[in-house]
Amino acid sequence: MSDRDNPAPPKAAAAATRSRGRQDSDEGYVLHSYPFRETSLVIETFTRHNGRVALVARGARRPRSALRGTLRAFQPLTLAWGGKGELRTLYKAEWQGGMVPLSGSPLICGFYLNELLLRLLARDDPHEQLFAAYGATLATLAAGADQAATLRRFEKELLAQLGYALILDRDAASGEPLQPDARYHYVMERGPVRVADGDAAADPELSGQTLIDVDAGDYRDPVTAAQSKLLMRSVLNHYLGDKPLHTRQLLKDLQKI
Fold first, then answer.
1. How far apart are CA 114 and CA 31, in angstroms?
2. pTM of the entire structure?
3. Among 57, 110, 111, 210, which is least packed by CB within 10 angstroms?
């Protein structure tokens, strides 16, 4: 079957057109950067309208380059680029201001978010709602809010936007509403299944109240906070595969995740 027989959806076609041509202006953040040749950088960016895009910032490592102080993580930028390959050329980067710099453990949390996006987002796949959630999460971390709860909310939104939304409103086996005092095991891509009285503990074991709280975005209960961390780690590991997250170990060392 030819492409004419099976045309791409309008959104996908528009994204493909953008990925092959010049982009004069898009909001974005730098997720990661590394040296390229003698004086340049490759920057992995997360943009509002184009998703994750890899760009070459030519000359960015030169001492007098205007880009040296601009291409920093966690700062909102306006970006312009061009090119037809997977690695395109950055033409312009302008700082938009308004974001308090992250430091200390919130900074490690920010790197954790970036590593999740790098590992789970495909290139040139726009996720505008997730982009907005990312910016809001950075602002929340910078404001000193509860870091664990902030990360759980972002992880849940990330999974939903990627099509892996958690099922948290019913027993996957029976279809019945969750019981706050019951014990459950979360079965990947199915949802929670009740653990019968006398059965061995689930791994991780989750109370019905924890699942109800996570569904509502409420992490105030210490049990919910502890069990939701185990739930999210288990689900994310399923989609991340065998390669561990480097920043997760740092956060574990800081007792933040």
1. 5
2. 0.87
3. 111
The alpha-carbon radius of gyration of the chain (Å, integer) is 21
Query: By the 8 A CB rule, do 41 and 33 touch?
Result: yes
Q: Where are the alpha helices (DSSP H) in the chain?
A: 10-20, 104-120, 128-142, 147-161, 208-216, 222-240, 246-253
Instruction: Note the pLDDT tens digit of each residue in 174-229.
Output: 999 999 999 999 999 999 999 987 777 678 999 999 999 999 999 999 999 999 99
What residues contact 150, with CB distance under 8 A and at least 6 apart? 109, 137, 140, 141
Tally the residues of the chain: 257
Strands 87-95 and 77-82: antiparallel
- Asked if 78 and 26 touch (Cβ cutoff 8 Å), the reply is yes
With contact defined as beta carbons under 8 Å apart, do 94 and 86 qualify? no
| pLDDT of 255 | 61
Exposed, middle or buried by CB within 10 Å (0-12, 13-18, 19+), for 183?
middle
- Tokens matching residue 89: 């050329």
Cα–Cα distances in Å, from 25 out to 49, 95, 131, 152? 10, 13, 16, 31
Joined tokens for residue 244: 């561990």
Residue 139, classed as helix, strand or coil, is helix
